[in-house]
């Protein structure tokens, strides 16, 4: 079949040709937008799930929904060991520009931009030389005495209030979307929760939408106990068989091609219903098919090629970040779960390796920080990447 017409799109954060199985989440966010537009109180939103389930894609879709409603919207990706001020400043600058198009008072917009610049400049160390100081690229003078105290919690509340009031001026709202939210530094995540709490009490039209790994709720709860009530948590999981079939059939049929029912069975077995894998195996099956329709044999021929590509780009790139001690820990997890996507007791890992649990804590904690494993509950550990155990057992080290 013509590879130029191949509709499948495996890629990090790349929107699939058919966004199947997410109607519930999209509908819920539409309700949030409408409630805020009517001045109703609404909680911020947190999406959690394993890698490859489409959290980043969904965040992008939610941002598009907000923009279509006339909201200001900005999106960032948190990074370990990186503060929140600089990326947050860039995201809110984008949101303010969205609002400025509709605002009739340029002086008011410039006033808020001045507060944003004051907030952003506090990202510079106090002892930084002038030539080394970062400039946020906001072409107005920095405000004085607003969002510039250096206390991230105080400054975030003041900044969010200013931006929300600007949105209120034009009868709309602001959406701040944060990907990889579990990587926000502890002090910043605490400040973010506090700011959301303050704004929710005042009914300000600013909504934070976070996305992260399954242990993100535990990270937020450790930061602020009230975070359990502050956010609405939505678990993003693999697709059902019906939705997985739709993710394959819809783009294939739009290209006026076909796929056998048995081939759909084979694709679902190979992908496990995970959106990223559906795209990877679907693309390989299309390219391998000599003629229309795609058959089970085409899927069987394509699977090793898709596996090889995933082994390098999806699994291998993560595995290479692990140290030898961490790889030993990961291998033990894979053996204990027989390569399945299941959690394992940390005491079992220690027993398997013939070590004391305390001696393995550094490796486990480092793997958590690198985003390779997560601990949803005390004493349990699991892979953040679907099929990672299967990949490890298939490696020839």
What does this entry look like structurally?
It is a single chain. With 397 residues, the chain is an alpha/beta fold. It folds into 3 domains: 213 residues, 3-Layer(aba) Sandwich (Rossmann fold), CATH 3.40.50.300; 76 residues; 72 residues, Winged helix-like DNA-binding domain superfamily/Winged helix DNA-binding domain (Arc Repressor Mutant, subunit A). Helix content is 53%, strand content 9%. The chain contains 16 helices and 8 strands. α11 packs across α12. 42% of the residues are buried. The mean pLDDT is 92.
Short description:
The protein has 397 residues and is α/β, with parallel strands linked by helices.
Jot down its keywords.
alpha/beta, P-loop_NTPase, 8 strands, 9% strand, five-stranded parallel sheet, Rossmann fold, heme, electron transfer activity, iron
């Amino acid at each position: 079949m013509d590879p130029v017409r191949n509709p499948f799109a495996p890629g990090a954060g790349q929107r699939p040709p058919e966004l199947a199985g997410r109607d519930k989440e999209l509908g819920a966010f539409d309700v949030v937008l409408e409630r805020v537009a009517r001045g109703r109180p609404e909680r911020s939103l947190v999406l959690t799930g394993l890698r490859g389930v489409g959290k980043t894609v969904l965040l992008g879709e939610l941002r598009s929904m907000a923009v279509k409603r006339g909201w200001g919207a900005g999106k960032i990706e948190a990074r370990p060991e990186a503060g929140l001020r600089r990326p947050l400043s860039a995201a809110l600058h984008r949101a303010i520009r969205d609002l400025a198009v509709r605002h009739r008072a340029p002086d008011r917009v410039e006033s808020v931009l001045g507060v944003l610049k004051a907030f952003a400049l506090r990202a510079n160390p106090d002892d930084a030389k002038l030539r080394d100081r970062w400039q946020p690229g906001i072409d107005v003078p920095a405000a004085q005495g607003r969002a510039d105290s250096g206390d991230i919690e105080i400054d975030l509340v003041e900044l969010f209030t200013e931006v929300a009031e600007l949105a209120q001026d034009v009868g709309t709202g602001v959406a701040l979307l944060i990907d990889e939210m579990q990587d926000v530094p502890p002090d910043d995540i605490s400040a973010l929760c506090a700011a959301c709490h303050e704004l929710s009490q005042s009914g300000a039209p600013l909504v934070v939408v976070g996305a992260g790994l399954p242990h993100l709720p535990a990270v937020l709860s450790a930061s602020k106990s009230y975070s359990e009530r502050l956010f609405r948590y939505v678990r993003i999981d693999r697709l059902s068989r019906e939705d997985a079939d739709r993710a394959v059939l819809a783009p294939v049929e739009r290209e006026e091609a076909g796929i056998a029912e048995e081939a759909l069975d084979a694709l679902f077995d190979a992908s496990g219903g995970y959106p990223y894998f559906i795209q990877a195996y679907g693309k390989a099956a299309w390219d391998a098919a000599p003629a229309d329709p795609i058959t089970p044999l085409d899927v069987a021929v394509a699977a090793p090629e898709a596996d090889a590509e995933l082994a390098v780009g999806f699994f291998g790139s993560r595995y290479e970040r692990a140290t030898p001690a961490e790889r030993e820990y990961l291998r033990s997890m894979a053996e204990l779960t027989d390569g399945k996507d299941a959690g394992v007791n940390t005491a079992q890992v220690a027993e398997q390796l013939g070590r004391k649990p305390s001696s393995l804590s550094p490796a486990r904690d480092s793997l958590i920080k690198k985003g390779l494993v997560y601990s949803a509950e005390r004493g349990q550990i699991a892979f953040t990447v679907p099929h990672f155990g299967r990949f490890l057992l298939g490696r020839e080290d």
